[in-house]
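Shipment paperwork, digital attachment
Item: protein structure file
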Amino acid sequence: MLTTNPRPELLADHTGKPKPMHHIALSYEEARLGMAFHEAGHAVLALAYGMRVTTSEVIAWTTESGGWAVTGNTAYRADNTPAWRFAAQAAAGEIAQVGYLMAYGLWTPDRAAACDASHDREQAIDVLAEFGFRLGRDHVPAGGKSWAMVQGMARRKVGHLWREIRTVALAMNERTVLTGDEIAELTGLVNPLIEEAAS
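Attachment content:
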């Protein structure tokens, strides 16, 4: 565990604002493993959908008050990824984390609510909007999809890939950081090479 806060950019959303922090009534070990499932959900779906994953990690640190905090980060490139697959990958973290609570007998309504990853939803909304796709928070916009529809897509894919997500989460919890190639090796999925654009 880090003894100081991680770099500010790891605690910020895609707009640079601090990610919301939620209290979850779990032990440090349980919360850390839950975050590993969250990041594994992002990473495994990213690979399954043809994105290149650089790293996926759990970040834990001691707070100024003497407690602890935990977050995570998955770095990837989503060049040419279909819009709704990108959105489903964004939804997969929260779904995998709630799945962890259920699978390990830790689920309660409050703990599930504390898995909220609205920053992932907001990033998906903003990224899709840049490409002309409409993703609604609580409704189905004309010609688009709702976040609930995207969560349904992600839930199905997380269910199909649960064994791979669990394998990656357990390895990430043990090692803290996994490269995309390590995740591919653990799961049998491909971490595609993406050529850099010529400058």
